[in-house]
Amino acid sequence: MQIFQDKQSLLQALQEIKAEEKSIGFVPTMGALHDGHIALVRSALRVTDKVVVSIFVNPTQFNTASDLDKYPRTLEADIALLKKEGDIFVFAPAVSDIYPEEDLFAPFDLEGIDLVMEGKFRPGHFQGVVHVVRNLFLIVQPQKAFFGLKDFQQVAVIRLMTKKLSLPIEIIACAIERAPNGLALSSRNLRLTESQKEDALILFQTLEFLKKLTRDFSPAVSREKAIEFFKKGKLELEYLELVSGETLEALDQNWSADSTCCIAAFCGEVRLIDTTPL
Ligand code: AMP
Predict the structure, then answer these.
(1) Sequence-distant (≥ 6) Cβ neighbours of residue 2 within 8 angstroms
(2) How far apart are CA 47 and CA 60, in angstroms?
(3) How many angstroms separate the alpha carbon of residue 37 from the centre of ligand 1?
(4) Same fold, 2-174 and 187-273
């Protein structure tokens, strides 16, 4: 495994990989790695010759300074985990490497898919995501990039950005990794107490509850029943939406072939999200 803390040294090493005509797989992360991230890394290792994992807590996608400050940073443990997976390039750059002064980036038209759900509650979040992922793509220039469906809306945004910029990068979406009890793995879980982790199970339980409703009820009625179920738990709901997986448009009377539920809630001060296809 090799660790690169500046852009120039990574670019140099990648040049050699490209000269050998090897394919590059890219897994962008914000660190505090868990089995969800590792599943992406393993998918990348299976189908590309050299895997680059970036570890960069991106300031432009946070809405509050305190959320950014409190985001877990565990670089040494992350490196130890990745070492076990194989001969990986780890890219842990400084902010100035990702956002140089001459960075030309203007807010991007994401056709409104950045304004619903996460976008509605975290204004500007997806512009920050698009900005960092574009800049990372321009540095790494992978053939394939791997993203988790835990961040369902993010995958849709990245696909649209890649298409609009005509980048020759295949976006590969990987399934959500969960703890045995169903809790979706997340770096933010590190900030939960044991009893909050129990409380947070209501997210998964609500998604499971919802799956049973789809045959008998419309999306509108199912949504109401799911919200009622969720409110029996201790979390504070931000949104629970039933959307078409492709357009992210809210479903009302009819289900679509790719109906998806996305949910966000606060467990104490920690904001958690979860999702499922229905
Ligand atoms: P993050 O470090 O939270 O920005 O996540 C980096 C990548 O890992 C994103 O593509 C996430 O969607 C993905 N990811 C995070 N948690 C999970 C999970 N539980 N299962 C699968 N992928 C995940």
Answers:
(1) 13, 88, 89, 90
(2) 31
(3) 5
(4) no
Confidence of residue 107 (pLDDT cuts 50, 70, 90): confident
Whether residue 182 contacts residue 146, with contact meaning beta carbons closer than 8 Å, is answered with: no
Q: For the whole prediction, is pTM greater than 0.90?
A: yes
Ligand 1 pocket check for 30: Cβ under 6 Å:
yes
CA distance 84 to 58: 25
CATH, domain 187-273, list 3.40.190.10, 1.50.10.10, 3.50.50.60, 3.30.1300.10: 3.30.1300.10
Residue nearest to atom 7 of ligand 1 (CA): 29
Report how far Cα 266 is from the mean position of its chain's Cα atoms: 18
**Is the per-residue pLDDT at 102 higher than 90?**
no
**Tens of pLDDT, residues 170-225:** 999 999 999 999 999 999 999 999 999 999 999 999 999 999 999 999 999 999 99
Encoding tokens for residue 266? 């606060």
276 lines ligand 1 (CB under 6 A): no
The domain locations on the chain are 2-174, 187-273
- CATH class, domain 2-174, is alpha beta
Q: What is the DSSP string of 35-102?
A: HHHHHHHHHHHHH-SEEEEEE---GGG-SSHHHHHHS---HHHHHHHHHTT-SPEEE---HHHHS-TT
Q: Is 131 a catalytic residue?
A: no
